[in-house]
Design brief:
The protein is α/β, with parallel strands linked by helices and 599 residues long. It folds into 5 domains: 8-85 and 573-594, no CATH class; 90-206 and 550-567; 210-300, Immunoglobulins (Immunoglobulin-like, Sandwich), CATH 2.60.40; 307-478, Class I glutamine amidotransferase (GATase) domain (Rossmann fold), CATH 3.40.50.880; 484-540, no CATH class. It contains 10 helices and 30 strands. The strands form 7 sheets. It has an 8-stranded mixed β-sheet with strand order 14-13-15-16-22-21-20-18. Strands 3-2-1-4-5 form a 5-stranded mixed β-sheet. Helix 6 links the parallel strand 13 and strand 14 (330-335). It starts with 7 loop residues before the first helix and ends in a 5-residue tail after the last helix.
Amino acid sequence: MNAFPLSALVVGGAVAATLAAVMLLYLLRPPARHFFVSSNLIWQKVLEATRRVSDRWRWWLSVLIASVACVCIVLAVVRPGTEGAAGSGKAIIVVDNAPTMATRTGSGAQRFELAKDRAVDLINDFSSATQVMVVDTQRRLVTPAFESRNKAIETVLSLELGQSFQPIVPSAIASIPAEGRYVVTDGVLLGLPPSDFVTVSVFEAAPNLGITAFDFQNVPGDPAQREAFVEVFNAGSEPVTTEVVISGLGEQRVTRKISIEADSFAGHTFDLSDFPGGPIRAALTSARDGYADDDIAYGYLSSRRIVRVTLVTRSDSDYLAKSLSAQPRVRLNTVSPRRYMDQVVTSPNQTDIFVFDRFVPSEPPSAPALLIGARSVDWLPARAGTASFPEIASADTRHSVLRDISLRDLSIEQGNYLQSPNDASTTVLLRTSDEKVLALAHDGAMRWVLLGFDVASSNFGLLAGFPLFLGNSINWLADEPEILREQPGMVTVPFDDARVYAMDGSEVPVVTVDGRSFFDATRPGLYTALGSDRPLRITVNLLERRISNVNQTAVVDETEADATDVADQLPVGLSALLLMLAAALLFIEWLTYHRRITV
């Protein structure tokens, strides 16, 4: 049976042909029957006495009953459309190709493979004249259009899974006239389709484990100890025991077996103190898992735990030295400017961070630096005047150096204003009421923090935020650049002309538009983006319960892919009523004929 109603002209022709056939059958005269009787005179007198013109109504009643019964049968079979647009023969099929459609079913096939099979079966049930538009939720089909059944089947079979975890159906589909609208989905990420769509569900519950959180943290009071936090989600209906494996670049490996209840999650910490740093991978090993992409997560562990700080100062006061030594990560070495020039320059690998107190070398140092009250040199921003009791108007507390620090009570007796930066890699930390700059942070190939005043000419060292400022500065200068966390798909790098490398060292194609670079991360992994002045680590992971919960479907009941389920078509119930009416009329015709009411 075709999925779409026939046109009004075809239906009208079918009804007219049926009525004509009935009338023709009634007009046919059966052959005369010959009987031998003794005389025709008696029968002629009987016929003349009983023939009436009004008996013709019996014939017309019989024709009417037969005609109505046949028309009911025709309408029940062709099931014409009830809307004015009926007969245009168009259908729209939305195929969900979101990443979670890769979930394996009990047969071993992906939900996406089942979806394509169901869509093909649906198209095959359509009339050969039906025009079909295939739409996908990942916009792989940029300009979908109506096409023949064979072309539509080819389009469905050519579809591939996408990468976006926010599947959408183009809004323009709602305004396109069509007799049938179908969506083939598992209902996990796409959700419940609109009411004018017939939902064809390919959902089948599947066991699945996924990593939904992966992060690193230092142990308070022990800078040499670091931990990894891993959260695992069990989307299945039964408790599962799995093994979590955390590995680094070398042979470092931590494994642990964990048990997780059905439809719940469990968080665990792992000691990574023996890991030297660098790329870290967390993986799950499970015999039964429906969706594999969420079984792996990547991170980057800073290689520096103990920071070697060299304080270069002319001052005999040990106040700054004591403040630095009190930092839990710091191993301090104090030298004079002369010794710095003579010894430290010849051994650049002995220091992780330099702290220059009212001194700055003429050449850039070999390590990141914190410069306090420094004079002007060529590799630093120039001075822009002398500051005397400046009024602090704003502090960039969003920057890592000033995070969680209050400078409301900061008082500066004397210092130097700094030239306002003209590059995107330098951030203004402190600004006065007249828009002059007192502190800068440079996030380039070699980081530095510059204060236009020193501790002795201000009350900065007496504030409660000063130790926190030193700790923030050391962490920001010594640690790896901030890691960008993304999901698979198109990733944006916040600088232009970037070169992006995958974990295996291969270069990833990059597109630059309006000062930003974009690359396509197809699967979870760790990437390194190199800009003109700094590197950037990028972790690409799923890490979301909404994604790992492949059994959270919005489709409650599975809908069979029946091509006769069209909203604009006469429903099956009405067709049955028409057939029942036809049967009743045929019974009435039989009854009236045998009672000599009709002829």
